Amino acid sequence: MSFDEYQKALELCTYCPKLCRHTCPVGNAERREAVIPQAKMAMANLVRKGQVELTTETASVFYHCNGCGLCGEYCEHDVDVTPALFAARAEAVNKGMDLPSMKQFTDRFYARNESLLRELHHTIDERYFVEEAQVAYFPSCDTVEHNPSVMHDTLRVLESVGVDYVALHDGEYVCAGYPFWAAGLMSELSFLAKEVANKLSRYKKVISDCPACVWMMRFLYPQIGAPISAEVLHVVEFLDNYAQRIEVSSTVPEAFYHDPCYLGRWLGVFDAPRRLMGRGVREIHEFTWNRERGYCCGGGGLVTDNLPDVSAKIAQRRLEEVLRTDVPMVVSACATCERNLGRESGNVEVVNLMTLLARLL
Amino acid sequence: MTATPTSADGRLAELQAALPDLRVSNHVTDRIAYARDLWPGGQLEKLAGKHAPEPPLCVVWPKDATQLVKLVGWAKVSKAVLVPFGAGSGVCGGTMAGTGSVIVDLKEMDAVVRVEPENNLVRAQAGIIGWHLEDLLNIEGLTLGHFPSSLMCSTLGGYLATRSAGQCSSLYGKIEDMAVSMEVVTGTGQVFETGRDMGGGLGPSWTQLFIGSEGSLGFITEATLKVHPVPEHRLMQGYGFKRVSAGCEAIRRLMQAGLRPSVVRLYDEFDTVLARSSAEKGSEADTLLDAITGRVKGSGALPWLKRQALQIVLSRPDLTNRMIEELAPRISADGCLCIIGWEGDRRLTEVQARLGHDELIRSGGKDLGEEPGWHWFKRRYAVSYKQSKMFTSGAFVDTMEVAATWDRLMELYDGVRKAIAPFAFVMAHFSHAYPEGCSIYFSFAGPATDPIEAKKRYDRLWSKALAAATRAGGTISHHHGVGRSKARFMTEEHGNSLRLLQTLKSTFDPESIMNPGVLGLS
Amino acid sequence: MSIPHSEVTGQLAEAVGPENLSSSPVDTIAHALDFWPRALMESRKGAWPRGPHWVVWPGAAAEVAHVLRIASSYALPVIPYGGGSSMVGGASPRGDRPWIVINCKRMCNILDMDEVSMVVHVQAGIVGVELEERLNARGFSLGHVPTSMTTSTLGGWLATQSSGMLSSRYGRVGDLCLGVTAVLSDGQVLHTRVAPRRATGPELLHLLVGSEGTLGVITAAHLRLHRLPQHRRFDSFRFDEVGPAIDSLRRCLTAGVRPLVARIQRDPRLRRQERAVDAAEPTPEELARRVLLVAYEGPAELVEVEHEILRDLATARGGEPLGPAPARRWWGQRFAAGFRMTPLLVQERVFADYLEVGATWRDLPVLYERLEEAFDRRGWRTRIAVEHARLEGACLGCAFWGEAGSLEEALESYDEAWKLAAEVCHANGGGLGHVYGGGQHRSALLDDGAKQRLALLTQVKRKLDPAGIMNPGVLGTEP
After folding, report:
1. Among B38, B353, C10, C388, which residue has the fewest nearby CB atoms (within 10 Å)?
2. Which residue among C117, C118, C203 sits closest to B212, beta carbon to beta carbon?
3. Domain-wise residue ranges, chain A
4. From C474, which residue of chain B is nearest by alpha-carbon distance?
5. How distant is the Cα of A288 from the closest Cα of chain B, in angstroms?
């Protein structure tokens, strides 16, 4: 996964007539040519070939990416932009040319980890934390920090279908390492992944409400020498097996479903959340950009922290379609999506699927 | 009036002082990203290591016409150059005004202002990307009917400024048929609406006179366009004709029969081979390479060998072209592929498809069923992906779209083909058919292992080909526009009526601040 | 500065030949007026207007060029003249200057017929009906049929961007034009090259189309044709009121039908009723009724489907099918409108005119109502038809007339009526001036946006006609 391994992709993008640019959430939000996928890749190529000097300025565009991969849906060259740009970020951080807002990222990461670990153990009863179990629940860091009730709701819904044996994972990290990957801090990622993999391999199944965590663990961990022997699933994939057992006492007339990028496009999970949602919502509204081409909420790729205005604009754009209707609710299955969309949704409620189901039981 | 500052920083500071609310950037990444459009000559320069030899001074993003007027005022006083910019997907160097120019990115003005289904009209700002406009119309059950292959990477303002035409122009019209009225800000700082939604068309049509102005007269900021209901029915058909001339004759008769197909495409012998083989292999991106190199034994497996084979094949295009001409009748049993599409109201679609089918069979077409048509429809945006692989394999690829009335169409086809053949491997298809004539779309590829040498060959090719086009009585561009790359042919193209264009320029941009050089103006 | 008359006469004679030049009152008086009702009314005051000082009949663009060079050097205003059927004073001299009228009708040849491409290259002085007949003889048709067709010329059509009755199918004349030859005021003969379509800058012929002679004299044009024979079908429907008729027409066009002509007008039975002796006053219901008259043209099977589509739409909206006869009858009398104005205008105290205003579908019904009401309140009569329908709207053709106490009062009422019409149009989304051009009359009545657009013409004119000789005073240009 070194920068040079992306040569072919970078070259193809350099000469491409930008046929994916209409998809890029960051490109659309900033209306700026320099941050459309083709230009970001072309800049990475120029830097790689030494035609342009790598500086904080030139490297800055690598960070204007959600890592959502929507551009790949419209690429006939099979280019995967996300890992290429994250590798470019790795190049930047190695040369000390990363964004000023990325300084001391590792320290901040670990400080947050500590604090969230404490929060987690504070919120969830200690009896749930066991070293070995059939199924261990690995909540998203954003869930722990911003929406801890999702954890209770998840456990409650699971218990309602007879799955009362889910434990909370007992490890030192509340993160599977996506931020390190997105920051281009590859050795930090490697270290963390091995630790997490080690701990999680004690379980038979690991379920997470974080699509990015699931994707990391299933696909990236094996590539960086940190395979997990447990089966890793998103909560939605797991619960789908018991969908018919979900019994609600009331329903909601209508709501939009927002496909999280990593659950939908990256993991290919589209129908399970809709089936589950259908247990409690009478009419599911689809965004024009849905399923494989689900539009990003603006929360990925560290954009929320580095470029908060851009992140907000992306969320606003995503919600335009909802705000044109009377539909009062958007449901999703990713804490990051829910947070990012929730901040811009006004009177429209953005709610986690588990929270909604728990409410309707 | 202050003295013109000599330093870029000084000029930038002046701009920021004059328009403190204007979003500006002279960030290195912006100056690089906005330095080029998609002109293949520029891609060759990139291959030679010149990624942005003449970057602009800065990029600005006006948020409304008022800011644009102020910007124009500033530009006149400080003798700056303003370049309207949509999404930079033009292929003629239309936005490449060079060092010191100010790129004016219209994309902050990208709203759909109102949709009026009852009037079959939409009002939208010029900075909206075509695909997004179509998305928003589709939600209301409407379509603009404008589908250029750049739909995902071009803006409404770009369409209007360059006189674009989409794949379904035979039914829905070209952009000048769709536009009803536009708001423009001229190089003199005037703001006006070029027409009305309906009626009151007194005097010359400023709508038609600003369409195609390629940024040389002012900025197009908003437009009212006709829309249609999303078609309730669509039919696609494929036919084979022994020779391309027979196919041409058939589509002439079709268009003159009073029918309105949505899509009419006729591929010449080699383009047919490509189209048919991509139907089997499923990806056009590879098949150009494959089709060219596929006849070379053993090239299938190894990419480096394929690349070598490509160079061999491209280095003697005159031979390759002749070989294809000889082989073509034997390569494709079905002859030249002709694709016809129909869409719209169900009854109208069905009756016209039936009448059209009869007409094409009568003209000697072989019925190939609907498969070839649907295959094209599903892959209709795929063709643009070809060029990247070609450039990265050491070849250049470009297209040339000319047009003529039917009486001289085959002469145009032969003339341009002969002119290109010594320089590059060439194939063509006919599309955008009208009762009075048709457009020919040439695709050509040549070697570019030495990009500097290749650029010289490329320039010579264009000169020879466009001269052949005008000699044959054709126009030098059907829908890509002129930009800077074809500016030197404007005299041939327009003759002495060029005076009218110069008059428009001196009326609306006497100080030459608007995109100088484009259309060959100042 | 006095004009050296005989000097000019000598030079003009050299330019076009002495037999193609006249200052005789027979000719100057004949070219003094066009068909602008106001001017015709004025002419009843006493003296018939003097007209131009010279009338010339050039035979080629080169001769036109020579004439314009002469006119430029003496600063003599010039009117390019086709049939002189302008309804807005576009072809009649104005003020006291010594005008040269360039009557283009000697330039009336078909220069080239490309039957393969269906394109004709024809001189602009050809009278409309003559062009059509010559084309018909070769199996083609232009598809441009203005009511003035037996008088007006191609050049006049292009200069005024005429619509013609068949605009719903064939567009306005500019849509039929692929290229023009025009002579500018300094004598340069310009040709815009012909292509089915191109993207090589603005389509320059559009600077001349609609310019009403203010920028140059159009001497020839390339036009797109269609082949004959075409199957034709007529149909008619009666509605209780105008709203559903307009709605049916709108939906029919939205569905993709391109009727040859579609027209909503008063129930023709009313006229027969009114003419009858001892006719009873029509009831409000009878007055509210409208008929939708349609004709289609094209391949027979396609025409049948188009007919079915409108029939279904109309009957679903309460339209009573009347069969083809009413539409066919109207079609047979389609040029009659041109004859109806004259009997009114010969009456001393009567004023009359025809106003054309375009509006989008949404605005059309209200505009219709308001116009009728406004005129009715003043005691003036109107006949409004909906015509020139297209995807985004249609045009109201409104004939109006009234009677006053004297000719002077009639002229005042004429001006008031137009002012009233302009106010109603501006307030209700109507765009005045859709069919007849602007001439001397319409420019003052336009809304601000339209006036601003005309001001641009003046800006361009300063460059192409610095001496200000090209039909000055029309379209708001300096007289």
Report:
1. C10
2. C203
3. 3-99, 105-240, 247-360
4. B203
5. 8
- Asked if the A247-360 domain carries CATH number 3.40.50.1860, the reply is yes
Instruction: Compare CB distances from A33 to B88, B384, B391 and report the shortest one's residue.
Output: B88
Enter the ipTM.
Answer: 0.96
Residue from the list B197, B352, B499 with its beta carbon closest to the beta carbon of C360: B197
Partners of residue B284 in chain A, C-beta under 8 Å: 76
Residue C1 is predicted with a pLDDT of: 56
Cβ-nearest to C119 among B211, B436, B474: B436
Q: What angle do CA A162, A164, A165 make, to 5 degrees?
A: 130
Same-domain status, C117 and C203 = yes
Fold entry, domain B108-229: 3.30.465
Band (B283; pLDDT cuts 50, 70, 90): very low
The third-level CATH classification (topology) of the domain covering B233-471 is Vanillyl-alcohol Oxidase; Chain A, domain 3 (3.40.462)
Q: Going by beta carbons, is chain A in contact with chain B, meaning 3 or more pairs sit under 8 Å apart? A: yes
Instruction: Tell me where in chain B the CATH 3.40.462.40 domain(s) lie.
Output: 233-471
* Beta-strand runs (E) in C230-319: 231-239, 261-266, 290-298
Torsion angle of the four alpha carbons A17, A22, A24, A29, in this order, in degrees rounded to the nearest 10: 120
For chain B, say whether A46 makes contact (Cβ under 8 Å): yes
Rounded CA-CA distance A137/A128 in Å is 9
User: Which DSSP helix (H) or strand (E) runs through C100?
Assistant: strand C100-103
Q: Is A74 an 8 Å CB contact of chain B?
A: yes
| Residues in B 370-429 with any Cβ partner in C closer than 8 A | 403-407
Q: In chain C, what residues touch B499 (CB-CB under 8 Å)? A: 184, 188, 190
Tell me the per-residue pLDDT of B381-396, one tens digit each, with 9 for 90 and over. 987 877 888 888 888 8
Name all chains with 3 or more CB-CB pairs below 8 Å to chain C.
Answer: B
Which chains sit next to B, with 3 or more Cβ pairs under 8 A?
A, C
In this prediction, residues B217-245 reach a mean pLDDT of 97
Indicate yes or no: CB of C449 within 8 angstroms of CB of B192: yes
Burial of B3 from C-beta contacts in 10 A (0-12 / 13-18 / 19+) = exposed
Q: Residues C316, C366: one domain?
A: no
Nearest Cα neighbor of B320 from B337, B344, B298, B295 is B295
Does one domain contain both C124 and C170?
yes
pLDDT tens-digit series, residues C3-23: 899 999 999 999 999 999 999
C210 in a structural domain:
yes
Task: State the first-to-last Cα distance of chain C, in angstroms, to the nearest integer.
Answer: 17
Report the number of distinct structural domains present in chain C: 4
Compute the count of residue pairs across chains B and C with CB atoms less than 8 Å apart. 290
C186-201 pLDDT, tens digit per residue, is 999 999 989 999 999 9
Q: Residue length, chain A?
A: 361
* C432 contact B CB<8A: yes
**CB-based contact (8 Å) between B161 and chain C?**
no
Q: In what order do the strands lie in the sheet with C78-81?
A: C21-22, C54-56, C100-103, C78-81
Closest-CA residue of C relative to B169 is C197
| Within this chain, domains A105-240 and A247-360 share the same CATH topology | yes
Nearest to C431 by CA among B195, B40, B104: B195
Is 70 exceeded by the pLDDT of residue B306?
no
Outline which parts of chain B fall under CATH 3.30.465.10.
108-229
A211-225, A295-309, B164-178, C327-341: the lowest-pLDDT one = C327-341
Task: Please give the CATH architecture assigned to the domain spanning B8-107.
Answer: 2-Layer Sandwich (3.30)
Does a structural domain hold residue C160?
A: yes
**Is position C474 within any domain?**
no
Q: How far is A83 from chain B (nearest CA, A)?
A: 20
Contact C152, C88 (CB under 8 A): no
Asked if B153 lies within 8 A of A31 by C-beta distance, the reply is no
What pLDDT does residue C437 have? 92
Of B34, B129, B384, the CB nearest to A17: B384
